[in-house]
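Supplementary Methods, section 5.1.

A reviewer requested that the exact input to the structure prediction be made available. We therefore reproduce it here, unchanged from the version used in the analyses.
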Amino acid sequence: GHLLVAHLLRLPAAERAILSPAGGRVDFPGNPVETFASAQARLRILLAGRAAEIVAFGEPSSGAGHGPDSDLALATRLALQLELQWGMGDCGLLYAPLMDATHIPVWLHTKLRALLAEAQTDAIEHLRQNRAALDRIARALLAERDLDASAIAALLPPLPRPAPVAANENVILFPKHRAAAPCLTPGASA
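The structure derived from this sequence is encoded token-by-token as follows.
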């Protein structure tokens, strides 16, 4: 799922994919700076393994959420960074230390769940629309267990050319912020 969703979102190609009895790993090139758009894309990629399980088997396994370094944990941290550290969430310009799940205010919990649910839904839709490619990649990983960049590229479907962007078209880099967001105001829990 990760390989295919990253490809469909036109992100840099994976360098390697490994499947072992303990789980899988996909190595993507590093991205030292995130934009709102790249972070949203990365949320979809992180949840694409879970989405692939839903598409293929009808339900997810515990694999995507197994431990603090799991895809679900990484996606949750990324969503928290968007909201609390990078000035890209509903709170606008704000930096606050990340918190553990037991201290997340209700409004933020709701926001994170919405971000993650939207990302997973988008990943599922991409994978359903490209089910043949998903199955082809899964078969190759099961057979080979270790795919390099050229093997991965050979499995991915061709992409249509992107539509040109008009020179005068406005591009929104991050969402408009709601003035009513409670952010981290003491006592704000709704």
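DSSP finds seven helices and three strands in the chain. These observations are discussed further in the main text.
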